[in-house]
Fold:
Amino acid sequence: MSATTIASIAAITLALMPSILYATFGEIVGQRAGVVNLGIEGVMLIGAACGFAAAVVTGNSYLGLLAGAGAGVAFNMVMAAMVISRHTNQLASGFAIYFLGGGVSMLIGAQYIGSDVNGLGQFSLPGFSWLPSPWGEVFQQDLLVWLMIPVAIGIWWLLFRTRWGLRLRSVGEDKDFSYAAGLHTARIQYQALAIAGALYGLAGADLTLSYTKTWQDGLTAGRGFIAIAIVIFALWSPLRAIAGALLFSLAVAVGLQLQAQGSPISPFLLDMLPYVVTIAVVLLWGRPKAFASPAGLREVFSGTSK
Amino acid sequence: MSTIAATLRSNPLHDWLDDHPRAATAGRWLSWAAVGVLAYSVLILIYGKSPLHAFQEIWANTLTTSYGLQDVLVRMTPLLFCAMAVAIPARIGQVNVGGEGQVYAGGLLASGMAITFTSWPAWLLLPAMALAGIAGGGAWAGLAGWMKARGWLSEVFSTVLMTYIAILAVSALVYGPWRDPTSSNYPQTPQFVPAARLPHVGSTRIDVTIFIAFGAVFAFDWFLRRTRYGLEIRAIGGNPFAAQTNGVPVSRYIVLAMAAGGGLAGLAGMAQASALQLHLNTGLSPGFGYLGFLISWLAGHNPRLIVPMTFLLAVLASSGDILQITQGLPSAIVNVLSAILMMIVLLGRMQRKAA
Structure:
């Protein structure tokens, strides 16, 4: 394999990572607070559609990112209201959110089919700009790529080094105990799901504003579910999640590169790679480490209503 | 404290409903239906159309004409299979999200039989295709169940991820080795020989698998209520740890229930290819697996409620096409409405329990 090929796989891998990684971060925050959201895919689609619409209307992709994150928060609050305040089944509610997001995003996106955006600007950080071609181009990336590691560290710090994070994790481990200890468990879960919603929205907006730069129905293609699989692989740690997202994106990038080089393998078989890799990786490394998962995940808690 | 609060909050209507559970159930269903109709009206209004006019069109084109009724029944067959694919594993606490993938896996194997053994007579080929469909869907879901039973990977994720793999496998085949060389534009297998086509009921577009679909629903209901295996399934559904302690082989039930559900979804895939499309292509299922998931949850995985819920969702799916043709409304409205229905039912159920 030539240096150009490797560099191009590396560049595509990096560019693909944010859409999966921010969704994984969001799910880690939510699950650490005891809420499984299977509706990530729906929230991502809403973020993708609203972000794209805002970018087309305003002509500014950064405003699109903000709109995507905002729409993600708003939409994830529907999930939050159902599971936190109304105590509905988390898995079923997640799927309702997934269907709703899929449908609403189609209605929003229908008006923007055929529109395109300039997309987020790509730039290199000073430390990388002296690299020779083709390696210099690998680090020509957009804002969301550059923010991946800072955001990972930020979320790790929030969860494991702040008082708020300690409370959030205690709610995820044992809500009754946290409630008895005087924590406002519902408020903490709402806060966690708001942050998660913003991250899902960013992940979705990244797809339309940086990757496809057009709208198509269902363009997340299962990334929300892959993000949940990566959460398990990452043992609910935002830093390990980077490795999971890297692996998934590498599988996609290798498939794309082989297709570009005119490989005789069917492109559809190459498209299977990320799903197969995700299952294989979780089977190999994500197996019975149940102790790592928040103990109170999916538990219904009635708090003050009794 | 809480009893005082409860007394203060007590309400003559609630007291009356507590004494009349049947009236309460009927009232709950009526209020859900009312909210559903209201939500549909609001969605249609958003697009600047008249809901009354739209409902008239739906009524006139679904239940009151022979063609419309056929359209609803044709949709019901795969939806019943896909709802059962979710309901059977759900009775022992397994969440099968991959009905769509199991439809494709079943359709793939059945179509493989149809285009390979073209010289077989119908009495041999059709049962073989049906078995291949069941085997394909069953293996696809059974594999997910097996990984779950071994404690390796939750079926919630594996079934979703395997759905993408199954659809891509169908694409790879119909764009590649199975592609009909005479069909220049559309990637699909050669048309099935007459012996590989399922017979229809009379001169309608409804194929004979509708009887199998209804049969499967009633058989499952009987099985749950009247056999020791049904009792064991209900025991696992109630408390898997207690069931395991009492000697119920929980792992085996997980694999078998997933495989049984997936097999039915696979049969739906076989019927779609063999009775309606007459070849395999990438549009084998327009989301039957996902609608089946909604139906099963709406029905609380209860086979007796699955039939009316399937009917409702089939009318709804049919109405999406009607509104698209007669009113120019986007068909995604129906997806939104089905999701809202599911949320209403989830919220309603929880409200009862909390009260």
Q: What stands out?
A: Chain A touches chain B at residues 38, 82, 86-89, 91-93, 95-97, 99-100, 102-104, 106-107, 110, 217, 221-222, 225-226, 228-229, 232, 266, 268-269, 271-272, 275-276, 278-279, 282-283, 286-288, 302, 305-306 (CB under 8 Å). Chain A is about 70% helix and 0% strand.
